[in-house]
Write a structure and sequence with these properties.
There is one protein chain. The protein has six helices and four strands; from the N terminus they run H-H-E-E-H-E-E-H-H-H. It is α+β, with helices and mostly antiparallel strands. The chain is elongated and about 60 Å long.
């Protein structure tokens, strides 16, 4: 079996989902106006841009992803992301919470406030205000120290 060039499968998938109406995922991308800067036959240009701009995949866990999910695969909208970072950029999958005039996903708040995510999510779902959740966890930490 012939070995494919590095990142060719990702390139091929980006082109297919944006340009091939017969691709199973076309309705999620191309039909919604999401496009790919590199067309069919542009693999060398894509690879050259990728290596010179972003470099090789930093670790096997990193994935090439779009920063803004409403924009296509274009220079300036791509970066290497870890799965956790990537999931945070999928705005349809996240629930955003506003606290101290800042809006971010529940997982980001849980990380920033050092509160276990599932505990944080459960309390938000119960309608407990975020300021009360934060106060409760500050009290718990000061008692255990």
């Amino acid at each position: 079996m012939k070995k494919l060039p590095p990142y060719y499968q990702k390139y091929r998938w980006m082109v297919d989902v944006t340009q091939n109406p017969n691709h199973p995922d076309y309705a999620l991308y191309g039909a919604k106006g999401i496009d790919c800067h590199w067309g069919v036959g542009d693999y060398k240009a894509f690879y050259s841009w990728l290596i010179s701009t972003l470099g090789h995949q930093p670790t096997p866990d990193h994935q090439l992803s779009r920063k803004d999910k409403f924009k296509g695969w274009h220079p300036g909208n791509l970066e290497w992301m870890l799965p956790k970072q990537r999931s945070r950029s999928h705005t349809k999958q996240n629930i955003f919470v506003k606290y101290k005039n800042k809006s971010q996903s529940m997982s980001q708040w849980a990380d920033d406030l050092d509160i276990p995510f599932y505990t944080f999510r459960r309390r938000i779902a119960k309608g407990i205000p975020i300021k009360d959740i934060v106060k409760e966890f500050k009290n718990v930490k000061t008692k255990t120290v």
